[in-house]
Each structure stands twice: as structure tokens, then as C-alpha cells.
Amino acid sequence: MRASSFLRGVAHVERQASAVAERRAYPEDDPEPYRRANRAREAVSDVATQFVASVPLPTSSRRSGADADGAVETLLDRVYERSRPDPSGSAFDRARAVGRADAVDGILVVPLGSDPPGISNWYTVSRSMVRYAGRAAVVCDRIEQRLRTATRPGAAVRWRELSELLVAVGRTVATVAAAREWIDPPETDADGAGELIAVAKRTVEHVSPDSTI
């Protein structure tokens, strides 16, 4: 499995939402807001189904470090934004050095798996999914308000429901990912205590990405 399996679906939702948000007007006989809302909803449903099929997420106390997490997060932005992300740059080199990224047919791949090193990517991918879903939900909220102003209440409801669905998916991913961090905690020796603190911080970040400890 690859990170793109999840991220491309959320990216499709944001593209559909952005296309509607960029319109200057919403005529009463225009079906486009409905069509794009339906396409976006199907994409969210696909992402949710794939994620549920992956639960419980694989667990491992073996980690490759914060530097690798940061490099992978940079690469995930690339996967999210491009249909053919290129495998290049220092972030790719750092992630590839610990087995958390690769190139297949000239395309960047961020693997997900049940064994190291791909298992370490689940944390970063889940956190990115929460962030992207929240970003798409904000666009949906903006569309809802504009459609209500344009007296398109039916279409506005579709986009409000889509925003709520995105928020629900984000919360589910955050909860599952946070729980995963505690299923297989590290030993609580002198070094493990520091790792437990890091796990606690990551849990808070999942639940509220803007929170700090």
C-alpha cells in the first residue's frame, strides 16, 4: 500500500471544492455544484473505506526519528499536490536513506506497510490526512455560505454535509492514529520515558494539530 491511496482521494475532494469556490456566480439552473459535491463525496467515501480496511493500524516501537518524519511530511505534500510527484531533493534523499520513500518508474512513492521501515509512515500519513481533510472542509464551508447567499439552499446543504463528513473522517483518523501510538508503547526506562513524552505530544497533535505541550 502507498500513501497516495489515501492522499489522492482527499486531493480530489479539494480540487472539486476549489472549482466550485472559484466560480463568480451560481445560477439557479446550474447543476455543477451538485455534480461536484457528489464526486467529492464519492472520493471521501473511498478514502474512508480504505482507511477502515487498514484498522487496526500496524504498530511498532521501532522508529526512524523526527528528521525522517519531517522529510516524509514534505514528500507527502508533493504526493498530495501532484499526479506524478518527482523523487528528488534532500527530503527524498533523507527519507529514502531509511527506507521510507522510493522511486518507481520515475515517480515518488511513500510506502505503507506492516513491517519496518514502511510501518513508520503511518503516523506521518495519518497526521497529513487530518490536515488535508481540514483544509478541504474549510473550502466546503466557504462554498456553503456563498450558495446560501445565492439562494441555492439545496446545494448549500450538500456542501455543508460534505464539510461535516470531512471533519468526521479527520477526527476518526486522528483517534485511530493516536490510539495506535499507545498500543505498543516503548519501555519506560530512562530512554523510553523520553519516547513516551514524544508519544504523548504526538497524541495531542493528532487530536488538535495546533496544540502544544
Give the N-to-C terminal Cα separation: 33 Å
Q: Which term fits the overall shape?
A: elongated
Percentage beta strand: under 5%
Number of domains: 1
Gyration radius (Cα, Å) is 19 Å
Question: Order of strands across the widest beta sheet?
Answer: 1-2
Structural class computed from helices and strand pairing:
mainly alpha
Q: Could you characterize the architecture of this molecule?
A:
- By secondary structure, this protein is mostly helical.
- The chain has one domain (4-207).
- Helices cover 67% and strands 3% of the residues.
- The protein contains 7 helices and 2 strands, in the order H-H-H-H-E-E-H-H-H.
- Strands 1-2 form a two-stranded antiparallel ribbon.
- A hairpin with a 2-residue loop joins strand 1 (102-104) and strand 2.
- Helix 1 packs parallel to helix 5.
- The protein starts with a helix and ends in a 6-residue tail after the last helix.
- Mean pLDDT is 84; it is low at 186-193 and 206-213.
Keywords:
7 helices, single chain, mainly alpha, 213 residues, disordered C terminus, 67% helix
Quick recap:
The chain is built from seven helices and two strands. With 213 residues, the chain is an all-alpha fold.
